[in-house]
Amino acid sequence: RLNALKSAAEALHEKDPVYKRDSDRRFIVSLIIVITLALSIRLFITEPTLVDGESMYPTLLNGERMLVEKVSLWFSEPQRGDIVICYYPGYTVSCVKRVIGLPGETVSIENGIIYINGKELEESAYWKYRGEIDLDMGEVVVPENSAFVVGDNRNNSKDSRSPMVGALERKMIKGHVRCVVFPLSKARIMGE
Questions:
Q1: How far apart are CA 91 and CA 116, in angstroms?
Q2: Residue 55 catalytic?
Q3: Who is most buried in 92, 104, 115, 159, counting CB within 10 A?
Q4: Catalytic residue among 55, 94, 146, 157
């Protein structure tokens, strides 16, 4: 009896243009809300990003998928050691790099070692090849509201050491890499 009533109601609704139009309108509004929410989350909060290349080896491997969090940059500046997603001047594709120089600091490379304000940068947690950076670099002062970024694979990374890139303005840094999510066998939280 209940199925017969349900079938009769559906048959009536199929013939009712006002009901059908209202139902279609609700579906379209719901779809727009879901799409807007998904795009907003990706644009302003977090997004998955693919590692493309070897510039962050061994920290991040080519083909891994990372989760990039964007909210923390609303409230604080990038810090030394942070792994960030950034855009180079004139580039439309994002890059993943490590922040090593902060505003007002002097960065230099001598005999394969990075110096910040004349003191050797302690980076043994992620760079195991002390003294093995191929090219030296004279002193560069990081401008205000900027950061000096490098790849962990120092001899295979285009980064702030290149005059074509230089220190990046703060607005070019889009988010922090928080974890690797794929492949699942290599999933990990960054910094741990």
A1: 27
A2: yes
A3: 159
A4: 55
Name the average pLDDT for the chain: 83
Please write the tens of the pLDDT for every residue from 100-109.
Answer: 999 999 999 8
pTM across the whole model:
0.74
- Concerning whether 186 is annotated as a catalytic residue, the answer is no
What averages of pLDDT result for each successive group of 10 residues across the chain (192 residues)? 72 67 78 78 73 86 88 87 88 88 93 90 77 82 94 87 89 87 82 58
* Rounded Cα distance, 42 and 69, in Å: 9
Q: If we measure between CA atoms, which residue out of 190, 147, 153, 151 comes closest to residue 168?
A: 147
Amino acid making up residue 104: G
Question: Which residues, in sequence order, are bridge partners of residue 150?
Answer: 98
- Active-site option among 97, 146, 157, 160: 97
The answer to whether the beta carbons of residues 170 and 86 sit under 8 Å apart is no
Q: Could you tell me if 85 and 96 are in contact, meaning their C-beta atoms sit under 8 angstroms apart?
A: yes
Q: Which two tokens stand for residue 50?
A: 């693919």
Write down how long the chain is.
192
